Amino acid sequence: MWDRPTTALHRGRTLRYLKIRFALDLAEPHLRPAHRRPAPELPGPGLRATRPPHAQPWRLPLHELADLINLSFLDLAKVVTAHAQGLQRTGLDELLFGPDRIHQSIDALTYARHDRLLHHETRILSGCLDQEARRLAEQEKAVRDRLLEVKRHLKEQRISELTAAGILPFPPATNDSRRLARSWLGRYLADEKEHLVRSLAAAAGVAPSASVHIRCIREKITRCIDNGWLAAPLTDTVQQTLDLDAPAFERRVIADATRHADRDDTLCHPLVLNRWRDQLNTSLTRIAPTVENPHTRYLKPLTLNGPTPSSARREQLHRRRRLFAALLQRRDESLRLITTLNDGMSIAERRDPSHALMKKIGDQTYDELVRRHPELYRHIRACLARYETRYGRLQIPEPRAQLRTQIFDELDQIALRRPAGPPARR
After folding, report:
1. pLDDT classification of 392: cutoffs 50, 70, 90
2. Which of 36, 192, 193, 390 has the most CB atoms lying inside 10 A of its own CB?
3. Is pTM beyond 0.85 here?
4. What does 317-386 look like in DSSP terms, one character per residue?
5. For the residues of 118-187, what is the DSSP string, one character each?
């Protein structure tokens, strides 16, 4: 994935399914090889109805199973549930949890866990403490354990990839007072710093897109798209989704959560992802009290702590809790997609030839700011001096952001004594 542009993340696996199922050639017309293939002969007149869901899809030949779970999310949920309960089959682990399908299998496991939990609590609330209730509880536990195991595997895989790319481990916050003073001076003089970076980058022959200061995640995504690191075109559908007001966007998010087979892939566009996650959090917070869930972290099982509720009440509560579970499932999905997107952009930026050069330009910029504003730099160093355990080494007990704000206020007072006044702060 990392040696080519990251494609816009989608959830329906539509393109991959079309390629596998129908052998479609999705290359540009001028890049397609010139060859003829005879059309397959289809028995019987006209079109045939799609077959109903398979009762035991895991019994299909492996190539047919791969084809089926590419198309049917509910069949994928059946297979991962059976696998969590101990089903073993040659090639099944790689099929379900290989790099190409692990995210979809985690999504299916999340759905299966909620489904077993909701059916179990429905029987408990109706007073049916029977063998079926115990079977549902065992299935839910098996799926939950498998889900945690697969998530740990995905996390280890991610750490390994980021470590190999040189992004992890993250460097600790500097305790060198000189480096911290230079960094805070650059942050205080943000506009001047940005202008210097662009000037030095242009002199070094760096493309303008690589030297643009990124102020928010949207600008970072846009830069990755413009540089060809991310294949996520801003289509009319995406723009219309971004332009939706809050009530319309919430309706769209909830409508998507009620569907599993035909999902709204536009919500997974990199420019929409963060708004989608925020809306899911808002909707979950609003709905949680109505489904008797004390928080929005996970679905808490209901227990019978009083008289048996009526069938109408049980059905109403079940429908609401199923929507709540679907929103939880979508939030987990959005967080995984955001994490994957951020990792992909970070790796692409680091592998770009301009990365090392921009690091050197950054050091030159800080040096130039210190040369231009020695009084401000000395003031920051003086403020940090009382936190030095020895020369150049800091130990700051209070939050650094709080100390930085206090120092910036003092720099404003110094700058006010100058004719030009204080610079714009960020």
Report:
1. confident
2. 193
3. no
4. HHHHHHHHHHHHHHHHHHHHHHHHHHHHHHHHHHHSTHHHHHHHHHHHHHHHHHHH-HHHHHHHHHHHHT
5. HHHHHHHHTT--SHHHHHHHHHHHHHHHHHHHHHHHHHHHHHHHHHHTT--SPPPPP-BHHHHHHHHHHH
What is the extent of the structural domain holding 383?
Answer: 177-229+353-416
Residues 6+ positions from 82 with CB-CB distance below 8 Å? 56, 58
Looking at the fold, whether 58 and 149 belong to one and the same domain comes out as yes
Q: Which of 358, 349, 342 is nearest to 218 (CA)?
A: 342
Whether 152 and 60 share a structural domain: yes
Residues 14 and 135 both lie in one domain: yes
For residues 273 and 373, membership in a common domain is answered with no
Question: What pLDDT, on a 0 to 100 scale, did the predictor assign at position 227?
Answer: 83
261-312 tens-digit pLDDT: 889 999 999 999 999 999 999 999 999 999 999 999 999 999 877 788 899 9
Domain shared by 360 and 268, yes or no? no
- Over the Cα atoms of the chain, what is R_g? 28
Nearest Cα residue to 230 out of 35, 406, 16, 7: 7
Q: Tell me which residue has tokens 């509720």.
A: 309
Number of domains, the chain: 3
| Cα–Cα distance for residue pair 168/165, rounded to 1 Å | 8
Farthest CA pair distance, the chain: 90
For the chain, what percentages of helix, strand and coil (3-state, to nearest 5) are there? Answer: 65, 0, 35
Distance CA 118, CA 318 (A): 7
Q: Do 278 and 135 share a structural domain?
A: no
In a domain, 340, yes or no: yes
Host H or E run for residue 7: strand 6-7
